[in-house]
Amino acid sequence: MWVFDATPLIYLAKVEALTLVKDLDGSCIIPERVYDEVVTNGLENDYSDARRVERGIDDGYFEVRPVQNDRRFARLQTNSHLSDADVAVLVLADTQDGVAVMDETYGRDVAAAEEITTRGTAYVVLSLTKQGAISDDDARTVIDEMIDAGWYCAPDVYTKIVRQIEDFAD
Predict the structure, then answer these.
(1) CB-count exposure of residue 102 (10 Å: 0-12, 13-18, 19+)
(2) Distance (Å, whole) CA 109 – CA 106
(3) Which member of 56, 93, 94, 145 lies 3.0 to 4.6 Å from 61 by CB, making a disulfide possible if both were Cys?
(4) What values do phi and psi take at 63, rounded to 5?
(5) Residue 68's pLDDT is what?
(6) DSSP strand E in the chain: where?
(7) 3 state DSSP class of 165
(8) What does the radius of gyration of the chain's CA atoms come to, in whole angstroms?
(9) Quick one: pLDDT at residue 30?
(10) Closest among 152, 154, 146 to 11, alpha carbons compared
(11) CA gap 134, 86 in Å, rounded
(12) Is beta strand 28-31 parallel, antiparallel or unpaired with respect to 99-101?
């Protein structure tokens, strides 16, 4: 199971690459709090990526799920550096034995401390490239377009991603 945070959803939607998730092994989940942040608020502000995420849900690529407000949720919620949506992603990934798909370093650090598996947007694209669901050219295009749309990727990380894509092509 893949539990998506806002940033991966938004940037895959911005570059019209949300349909790629259909080739991931396991279901793709959006916690209700992430849905509210990305879709509900996004539609109120007329963001096209919000409409694309909503369409991805309607098309069955994603399922929206509630998160129990248990003790762990309450404890993580006291961390002022995590949004309620971040906490929901971490808790749902942990309770459902899933993978939290998030890009923010702080959230990933908290996940590591909580022993919750995380992967980033680039990992999803690379994984799909490795399994042949997306070509190496298309993978590079998705990464480049996400960066052009505002997705942050450190230059050294970008270099590693491009090398990995090129290795898949060989």
Answers:
(1) buried
(2) 5
(3) 56
(4) -120, 135
(5) 81
(6) 2-4, 28-31, 63-65, 99-101, 118-119
(7) helix
(8) 16
(9) 97
(10) 146
(11) 28
(12) unpaired
Residue 164 burial (CB < 10 Å; 0-12/13-18/19+)?
middle
pLDDT score recorded for residue 73: 86
Please give the Cα distance from 167 to 139 (Å, whole number).
Answer: 12
pLDDT tens, 15-32? 999 999 999 999 999 999
Averaged pLDDT for residues 139-166: 94
Kindly report the number of other CB atoms within 10 A of residue 130's CB atom. Answer: 15
Residue 5's alpha-carbon distances to 82, 135, 165, in angstroms, are 12, 25, 24
Which phi-psi region, left, alpha or beta, contains residue 97 (left: φ > 0; alpha: ψ -120 to 50)?
Answer: left
pTM for the model: 0.93
CB distance 121 to 103 below 8 Å:
yes
Contact 12, 121 (CB under 8 A): yes
Q: pLDDT tens for residues 98-117?
A: 999 999 999 999 999 999 99
Structure tokens at 67: 């998160």
pLDDT tier at 169, thresholds 50, 70, 90: confident
